[in-house]
Amino acid sequence: MYQINNFTNNKNIRILGQKGAFTAVEYLKDLSVSPQNAQTAYFCNEMNVRKRQVICELSKSHVTLQAGAMQWMVGNVNATTGVKSVGDFLGKAVRGKVTGESAIKPEYTGDGTLVLEPTYKYILLEDLNDWGGSIVLDDGLFLACESNLKHKAVMRSNLSSAVAGGEGLFNLGLTGNGVVCLESDYPREELIEITLNNDVLKVDGNFAVAWSSTLEFTVERSGKTLIGSAASGEGLVNVYRGSGKVLLAPVH
What we know:
Mean pLDDT: 86
Order of helices and strands: EEHEEEEHEEEEEEHEEEEEHE
Shape: globular
Number of helices: 4
Oligomer: single chain
Largest sheet: 7 strands, antiparallel
């Protein structure tokens, strides 16, 4: 048995949200300051630059983490590679290579408590039930997920779209019934959520944070012709076509 005190019940820590096995918390102030960094700490607090952490309760679900994300754990917690066979290892290695994510994401099982490294980025907890059971992530967003979710490399609809747009050819996709934890440069309150019903979204720039895997994702000219694109002052745009959701950042 174990007890954790002066953590979530500390008056300097606020619970931001809870979904599935994950609880996101935020430190209201950085109390570990000195005269040398007090000014920086003050303005960080005023501008909502705060440390945030994710707590994982393994009794609710086993979790899979981005490599190196664990800070401490207590109770019955077992760490595994999550690799089930040689074929599984090769598949994960290939997927990690093409998506830019870590090839091996450790899986934690048991019924104890696991706490992730603090971050100054924003924590997004997304339930895949709200995404029709599947989601595709922009590069570098994945932090953790419930282990029953399946990972896959999602390829662009055509090779030329990735080359022309200067983007990677693959993104990390997650499918199943569970919660994924994202580490974002933008708070959830600032993200614009667009729901498409057999329609088209065109975005001038890499503003999409996540989107439904049911959407066709390509890079196209903003106009029907090269002359039209030049006249509009725009060149290539990211295009999301079909039915599903897209989360857009207000700035990039």
